[in-house]
Write a structure and sequence with these properties.
It is built from two helices and no strands. By secondary structure, it is an all-alpha fold. The chain is rod-shaped. It comes from Saccharomonospora amisosensis.
Length: 106
């Protein structure tokens, strides 16, 4: 017979790591805001590329916002999976404990 074993605590640990990555993505998104400088900093020649630079910063911030959402979603899903596996294991244990009682109690 083949089977599998799921360690629900490992799933919870991984869920926590994903939540930590969400915080990192949030910090980086905050740093993107500080990377945009005023028009005077670009000078006359730089004004020709400032618009493109600002658009790219917006795209980068949007990417990190999406990463935050993805990490949050994945973290929640792994936590729910851990809960589901643990509930299933607890139910099987309870069922088997009932069988043991019936055998012992005859």
């Amino acid at each position: 017979m083949t089977g599998f074993n799921v360690n629900s605590e490992e799933l919870r640990t991984y869920s926590g790591k994903l939540a930590g990555q969400k915080d990192t993505a949030s910090e980086i998104a905050g740093l993107v805001d500080t990377a945009d400088v005023g028009d005077k900093s670009w000078g006359v020649v730089g004004l020709f590329v400032k618009h493109s630079y600002t658009e790219m910063l917006g795209d980068l911030k949007e990417l990190f916002t999406s990463l935050q959402d993805g990490f949050q979603s994945a973290s929640e899903k792994f936590a729910m999976a851990a809960d589901g596996y643990q509930q299933n294991e607890d139910a099987v244990k309870q069922l088997l404990n009932g069988v043991k009682f019936e055998i012992d109690g005859k």
